[in-house]
Batch of 3 targets.
Target 1
Amino acid sequence: MKAQIMGSLQRFAKALMGAVAVMPVAAILMGIGYWIDPDGWGANNIFAAVLIKSGGAVLDNLGYLFAIAIAFGLARDNNGAAALSGFIGFETVRVLLNQDSVAGYRGIDLAEMSPEEALDWASHGWAAIGPKNVLIGICVGILAAWCYNRFHATRLPDFLAFFSGRRLVPIMTALLSILLAGVLFIVWPIVYNILFNFGQSIQNMGALGAGLYGFINRLLIPTGLHHALNSIFWFDVIGIDDIGKFLGGAATIEAAKAATDAASCPGIWGGDACTVIGEVGRYQGGFFPVMMFGLPGAALAMYLKAKPEKRKVAGSLLLAGALASFFTGVTEPLEFSFMFVAPLLYLAHALLTGIALFIAATFKWTAGFGFSAGLVDMTLSARNPIANSWWMLLLLGVIYFALYFGVFYGLITALNLKTPGREDDDPDTEATLAADATYEDTAAQIIKGLGGAGNVDAVDYCATRLRVTVKDYVPVSEKEIKRAGIAGVIRPSQKNVQVVVGPQVQFVYDEVARQLQATSASLEGGKES
């Protein structure tokens, strides 16, 4: 049972990444648009306007994006009928439960509300059910995928045969989405209120809340549950929408000018004015010093503390992780290199991340990202009109490089921590693959560590990890898997293995899948002969 649950979570994580992977494109388009026209935000340059509006086409419709991607990703054979069903299901729920529809059901005139009534109405969350609602998109995506897996092979009587099979899936999704809307009509205000109060409690803590969020965010990385936490603060689940509001900087500024109360303010309402500069982006800005500078400083410390005979191998791993962290903000390959072998270092890393977000939020230094807090996103967000004193994040980064280096170097020395290159010699340990090993070699070594092709029941991947289900946990050797030169191995349950590869995970997955398929075909051929 536990293995089935973990397998389902792995498939869900991959489906989720199908939506997340599109966001960097939108961020790049908008970032280039703001670079071209930082003052008019597209008003002074047609090309800039096209880029900004094109990016907004994605970010303003994240609910649809998640519904479609999850439905497609969870469908048994990734058929387009599931994706179509995700779109239909989301649109059905959105139309039935948007605030105008709900106000109509209840006989409420939104234009005649007093400020107190408007704030109370906002706390129920009906305004949040729109094209950008990621949480509703996730719910509908799961429903659409279930409908596909349940009904895609259903046969109807001859007079309805045209609607059999995959044609039945969108129909059933639409019908069940009406029922889902009915359930959400009752449940949504309760769920939203819980999330709203949690988010408000963090927001009301100001800079301290941002620091607390950063600390918890890092602590949840090993479990993958940081995505759930991020959705509350980064997307439009309860109105915080830190990424969306930052990337849509021009629209956010205009909305702040037009705001008349806390309910209509996209930032912080001060009683008579809405402030967004220095406020929107507080849950993003502090990550830049950590990812661009802090973790590379930690990598340098671990490299210098590696044993001389192991420094070359450790250096290739650490350099690759540091470059990925600096340029793209992808930190998992580096974090997993010390997360389990030296958990005290990881705790220090989480604390330093929280402090970075606290400092950035205190001084209102903001920058944003569409993917993660690396150099690419920093460059693109620098001329976003809502960015504030972003260059101070670079100065803080220089300090953080020295701080991380000192903390890691000191703790490794004082406590003799077994970071990469400092492992105890094992007479049974063979050398890891060379740094220039091919994907074929890497895949073959991973399969060997998993107990061979015959022991692999299913394999999938997400942003940085292979997610594998094995038939028997006994033959699995973490030591053999790590000889492939990967960043780390996680065992969520006996039959589930996560192999942390890094940004090149898709290419490793493709080769693993090819070798598994070739082995299966060979075995089948042997049986037939």
Target 2
Amino acid sequence: MMKTQTFRSVALVCALFVSVSLQAQDKLMDILKSELKYEMEQLGKTEYPPYYMNYRVAETSSNVVRASFGTLVSSTNKSVRSFVPQIRIGSYDFDNFHGQVNGVATSFFMGPQICYIPQTDEELAIRQAIWSEVNDRYKYAVETYEKLKAADNVYTKTDDKAPDFSDAQAEKYYEEPFTAEELNAFDAKLFEEKLKKYSALFLENPNIIEGEAAASYNTTRRYFVSSEGAEIAENSRACRIFISGMMRTDDGMELPLNLSYYAFDPKGLPSDEKIMADVRELIATLEAMRTAPAVEPYTGPALLSGEASGVFFHEIFGHRTEGQRMKRDSDGQTFKKMIGEYVLPKHFSAYDDPTLKNYNGQDMNGYYVFDDQGVRGRRVEVVKDGILNEFLMTRVPTDEFGQSNGHARASEAYDPVSRQSNLVIETSKHLTDEQLRKLLIKEAKAQKKEYAYFFKTVTGGFTQTGRMSPNSFNVTPLEVYRIYVDGRPDELVRGVDLIGTPLSMFSSIIEGGGEVGVFTGTCGAESGWVPVTASSPAILVKKVELQRKSKSMNTVPVLERPSVSEDPMLF
């Protein structure tokens, strides 16, 4: 979420310089602009004319390869064009999105229905698909607006009195379509062989019940046009390898571990030698975990690695800085009244930066130039020297913040809301790993604990921010160690859930430093799944709460896992 500022600005100048000649060759952009203008004019003659509309198109090509225990499972290629219109009727002060997230009927489990448009530039077919979706969304907009107007005269007003929508600069930005080299950068046959080789390593241990490897390469070209005059075409690429193995203990506890590698271009991924060495280390750790003791409930000090604390901050801190949540009285609004106050130790800062292309040697999954409301993304200094400064804002304003800072995000079919992109935690008091370990043991002794905990890797987590349930979090660690105060060797444990409440946890952070970790993934929330990255140094926490993870109903397999027979008669 940061650097490469010089490169980015140069690229922008080039893109704007050639935009006139290139855009003339982009038929889809012309169709979107023309159709938006026409439908805005036609709907303007109705009883409820829109005061604002935009169209979003995502043109995505996905290559996905999967292998298990040395055998290819699947290798697929899929290309789609999804279309999402947003229609706002009423006024900036009060419209059909008043307290609503999506401008279309949404299933709790399935989300909104996705509208796909033709992948060829056949104008009539594209216009037909657009017309159908806009017609449906306009009807839903009118129905929602009438209900909201009626309810506004009956129900108690919300605490936040800001308008439902704010103005924004309408920008024109154009990137060339992908080159053939970029579109074909993923050699499926090559990755099929790589994944078979990686996953075959799991055959070396008979106790492993799942051993998989997957690779994906996605190219996405996003279009955005609005009734205000915005015209944006932007590209993104992402390549990822994900490797996972799992064992099951005699008492039925499932023990998963995984590895993840990310780069914009397949050439940026690690070598085969590096990945295979990591897989062998993962297998050794799984075997050690299989006979490791299960954790008991615990409260006390802990040390989180950079990767683990990155997930911790994303789940527990980051979601509570997404500004659109402050608009809804149903949300817990943990930080709404804490602008200008200390929320982290004085030597900690946190910022979210979608313009950050690379950090600490890692490509950043949350990188983009423009958000899904056509607003240029920018770095937001959420916390500076421990003090809360600002929230991640969309064009939905709050009483405290009236303008977007480019953090409106959504996946296909959804309308955008405030979301994280590249969250970076930094400390000005950078301790070494050894110093943090000594302080951890010192704190454990002060609390009269026999041991403390070190969280090395995690797989993710979830948090609840609404008022209808306790504001809590649950982070799922994978590799956890007991650190004994009397000098005994560190002990690997299993079956850990890290739980708690946010304000209590934040107040327990003592120090930070050590190796910086980068966690790359996707985050699911009200506007679907979006790519994110979280980077943080290791952190020392005065008190965490652990509970034992629930066990699977399954026990170890009755039959031995199939393997190559030593009897030549059976070949």
Target 3
Amino acid sequence: MDGVKIATSVLSLFAGVGIFLIACTMMSANLEALGSRRLKSLFAKASKSKLLGVGVGAATTAAIQSSSATSVMVIGFVNAGIMTLAQAATVIFGANIGTTITGQIVALGLFGGNTVSTSAIFAAFAGIGAFVLAFAKKDAAQKIGGIMAGFGMLFVGLSMMSGSMGYFSELEAVKNFLAMFRNPLLLVLIGALLTAVVQSSSVMTSMAITMVVTGLISLNQGIYITMGSNVGTCVTALIAGLTSTKNAKRTALIHLIFNVSGVVLFLIIGLFLGIGKIDYGFIFGKMFPNAPQIQLSMFHTVFNVVTVIIVLPLTNLLVKLVTLIVPEKKSKQPTDGQPHLHFVDEHMLRTPPIAVQQTKNEIIAMAETAIVNFDLACGIVCSLNYEKIEEFRKNENQLNFLNKELVKFIVRLLKEDLSEKDRVYLSTAIRSITDLERVGDYAENIVEYADRLKEANEKFSDEAINEITDLKMLIHKLYGAVMNAYRDCDKKALKEAYAVEETIDEVTGKMAENHIRRLSGGLCTPEVGTQYLSLSTNVERIADHYINVARTIKSYS
């Protein structure tokens, strides 16, 4: 083999890895977007049992073809406080099983011999998918085209990697060099480091399979490199966890401990097998003769399944261990009293459909904060008691923070690959955030009216306070209908919200009439009357902003 062929082989290897990575990303993004609703419902079921959590993790990873994406998604959920550590652990366990599907697909693609190879057949899907992408008009059809194109490109990349490995296998110097790496621990380390660099255990496993098939390395070497890839894939989750909450760090640590435990266990078993002069390569070679690609892919599956079976009963102990390693600091809580996002996290941008749902949850939480502040404002203006003013100010800071930071998150999310429905929803979400922030501003106005009454040594009459209380109850009724409509895209609830809003308009009109009557009868002063009328006007506008939030469902439901 001359220098030109060596250079060509190296370039082909890099090209193959690049195409394979792009294919994985393309498949993952389109599968996530197409199955976003099912993906959301799957994660909602993860809390029911440990086995179900494993199943959810396996199914999700098999669907989106990325254990790293699943792990980062889980860390985002833990960070948001909507998934416990134990639930997250079981999903991560399942993700390790789900990621073996890629290896099985790759192994299937390396069959061929003297006939047309399955790899060439599957690679043809790249052309079919590209054709669909070019001419399809509907969003769902384009997503299917993207999946097909990604699937085909997977095998284009695989063919290029396999071809380059074939060239290298002809060089005795290369084979002799690789033969030097027989130490299992060293091979595991190599697999972990290479996987950490390419950020994909699927790529590393696929490369190991092609190297075994072409004879560049032995089956046993490929097995230990594959084991190392399971440790290397934790890097993505660790990076995500390091910039998040304590529980998110613990989740990333669970991922690492689980994978390292499996590797240690199989290294020990391999050591005992060596005493009997056999190894994993010998065992799987006998189980699946004349099919090296199946031998390695099946080991990968067995390795992960056995590790899950052993570690799953120890989930609670594992949670206690990571809690000890990453303890709570009583002195300083980063979120106490400080504005923060409850549900969204920048790492969720890797899984756009889930990020969209979490954005909706964040807006629902924002709406609740706004209604709480409205209640506090009404309490202050009616009683002139400022005992809860600090809570009010904290909530107002939270609303202002969400108005800025959540909009920034949505702008970034809109740059990701989304379904048309999700894109429309996010466009309306920005307006909803503004509406809810305005609710907070009007609540702030009501507190200012309390300040003016206190300065003038005035207060509302009992009749006026009763009217404000009745109005507050109507706002709560409106809020309930609006949230039902918004949360479930319930058009019946939207009609109910419209009806309540009309009642509020009528009531605020009568409040103005009652005010004039009291003013004429000398039951209240002009100063009190001014604050009272301003309050009723502000409450009417609060109702309008809540209705605006509910009305957005007509755009995308």
